[in-house]
# Entry
Amino acid sequence: MTDSKVIAVVGATGAQGGGLVRAMLADAEHEFRPRGVTRDPDSERARALKELGVELVQADLDDRTSLERAFAGAYGAFCVTNFWEHFSADREIEQADNQAAAAKAASLEHVIWSSLEDTRRFVTDDRMPTLQEKYKVPHFDAKEVAEAAFREAGVPTTVLRTAFYWENFIFFGLGPKRGSDGVLAVTYPLGASRMPSMAAADIGKIALGIFKRGDEYIGKIVSVAGEHLSGSDLAEKFSRALGEEVRYVDVDPDAYRSFGFPAADELGNMFQFKRDFEDAYVGARDLDVARTLDPELQDFDTWLAENKDRIPLE
# Structure
């Protein structure tokens, strides 16, 4: 592995970055070697990576100089931001700017930027509220805006547009909840539209597949998912895996935005975007492309078989 090319993985202790780190460690060819970039190398998750032999470096996305040190000498980098740490689209853009500048300073040969669509290209009316003064779905919109930083810096970049990942059912409170009648239900303002979704680990495997293709995907946008599922599809698959009825409750986006939990307005807008612009959002995510880059791409049934016991139901 000493001759492997180093990939600096931002968010190495998170869902997407962690998936890439583990994909590189499991790769029989060992073409690439992960360098975990983390804000806290002493965290439990960071220590677990260190025990696996992963090189760790400390860096803060708000500190460009620390990122330059973390990227120095690497072949490439996986760059990502975490909106849910601070809930600020503007800060996400600033953090992406820092990563792009650091990648340029380090003369990286290939960067993958984990991104999503700017929903304002689609939502040109007042069907949903404007958030943070200028965004419709801030954690989507900021990521496409940030793509420009990598282009303008002249960094060889692949834009990887991802999808809702199923770990949100475990850690984000979006899985089935038991109602007052004792029956489990998933509640989203999706109507009958299908929603692209996937396992977080497969994002990492797809990223590794892109790096393995060399220059083939530089300058391109790759949009991926593991499966396109409606709310009814999700409920049916949950029911089968959990061994009890799970209903799909379709609600109006305005009602969902009024639920009062943190970022209910953000998620209400997100689901409404996916509902109203299903053709464009699903159409961009060719499952065959994802399978080409990740031959082990999971479907939801496979993921559920492994993870159903981790989903809190109460």
Notes: The radius of gyration is 19 Å.
